[in-house]
């Protein structure tokens, strides 16, 4: 199975990517600020429920591609590396955003949970990201690729719960801090960009 060192590296990369300001964690932050910590935690659970769907799809799909042919493997590898570089480019260009609570809405907790699921499941970028991110930490020589992908997806979900859950619990303080320090947002995006570039290089040089 996957060595603990590889899982630790994957976990740290997932934590860092989760901390970079994006639509999902900002949505968790604003809903927590508007409706309280429970609302933010429910949105987080909804988003992570959606990640289960993406993890399952990628786990079974990638295993087939890896075993198909050298050409299919190379196409997946280069496509994934290209997408990671695209994400890095956007991360390096991203500027600080004003975090605003906005106007209070009337969404129930159940609707917030469903919205988290729908936001994640209907976002094709998540599947594309998983296709680029998960395979480079798997190795056919370690056994079932499907099980390795499911394990990696599970670790990613745990990291997301930890990061987004912390954001939900600390929503007020985090929002004020980010608004007072736009430079912090920029630095976090640059760090995410460096991670994306490193992952792209790693993926481009991996062998079947």
Q: How does this structure look, described?
A:
There is one protein chain. With 208 residues, the protein is mostly helical. The chain has one domain (21-96, 106-205). It contains nine helices and no strands. It has helices spanning 4-19, 23-35, 37-68, 70-93, 109-121, 124-133, 145-169, 171-180, 182-205. The longest helix is centred in the N-terminal third of the chain and has 32 residues, at 37-68. The protein is globular, with a radius of gyration of 18 Å. It starts with a helix and ends with a helix.
Q: Whole-Å distance between the termini?
A: 17 Å
Instruction: Give the overall pLDDT as a whole number.
Output: 79
Can you write the helix and strand succession as a string? Answer: HHHHHHHHH
Helix count from the secondary structure assignment: 9
Largest sheet: none
Q: Beta fraction of the residues? A: under 5%
Specify the helix fraction band: over 70%
Class of secondary structure makeup:
mainly alpha
| Poorly predicted parts | none
Which outline best applies? globular
Q: What descriptive keywords fit this protein?
A:
208 residues, mainly alpha, 9 helices
């Amino acid at each position: 199975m996957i060595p603990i060192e590889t899982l630790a590296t994957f976990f740290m990369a997932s934590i860092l990517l989760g901390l970079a300001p994006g639509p999902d964690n900002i949505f968790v932050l604003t809903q927590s600020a508007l409706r309280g910590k429970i609302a933010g935690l429910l949105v987080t659970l909804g988003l992570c429920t959606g990640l289960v769907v993406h993890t399952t799809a990628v786990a079974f799909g990638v295993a087939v591609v890896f075993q198909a042919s050298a050409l299919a493997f190379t196409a997946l590898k280069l496509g994934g590396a290209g997408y990671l570089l695209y994400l890095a480019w956007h991360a390096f260009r991203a500027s600080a955003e004003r975090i605003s609570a906005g106007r209070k809405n009337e969404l129930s907790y159940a609707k917030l949970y469903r919205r988290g699921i729908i936001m994640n499941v209907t976002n094709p970028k998540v599947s594309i990201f998983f296709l680029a991110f998960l395979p480079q930490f798997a190795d056919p020589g370690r056994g079932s690729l499907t099980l390795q992908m499911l394990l990696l997806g599970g670790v990613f979900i745990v990291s997301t719960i930890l990061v987004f859950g912390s954001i939900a619990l600390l929503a007020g303080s985090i929002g004020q801090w980010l608004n007072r320090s736009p430079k912090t947002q920029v630095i976090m995006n640059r760090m995410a960009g460096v991670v994306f570039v490193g992952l792209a290089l790693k993926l481009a040089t991996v062998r079947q």
